[in-house]
């Protein structure tokens, strides 16, 4: 049975609420609103977009307010930061510690999280193995999602 997008978002919010309650995390109304806005977005969303999205409900807020909420959401694994876009996506597995890779569409901006520690661990170890001190590790792949790749290809072969 197909689940509507709204139901899907509600399930993710309910899961986040349960995770926060189980771990004594203060998912305050503002933090929850920021999280909900990220969940609702089909693509990574930046802090200023979040400010604009929340303005109808909360009025004009200083950016630091949203950044503090984002810091909380990042620290507790509710969201991930897409470094190359300076934007945020909702984590697909809140409550399960993991490292992630991301597939990002250059066409529509859709971003898919690929959780998995193997590749990330292998890369982390490659630094020290080469006498290199790693400060930041980001695995973000850009390209085209299936619908965008189909749209980019000429229909019927030759053109
Ligand atoms: Zn994740
Ligand atoms: Zn796309």
UniProtKB/TrEMBL annotation:
Gene3D superfamilies: 3.30.1490.190, Winged helix-like DNA-binding domain superfamily/Winged helix DNA-binding domain. GO terms for molecular function: DNA-binding transcription factor activity; transcription cis-regulatory region binding; zinc ion binding. SUPFAM superfamilies: Winged helix' DNA-binding domain (SSF46785). Binds 1 zinc ion per subunit. One of its GO terms (cellular component) is cytosol. GO terms for biological process: negative regulation of DNA-templated transcription; regulation of secondary metabolite biosynthetic process. Its cofactor is Zn(2+). Homodimer. This is Ferric uptake regulation protein. It comes from Paraburkholderia panacisoli. The gene is fur.
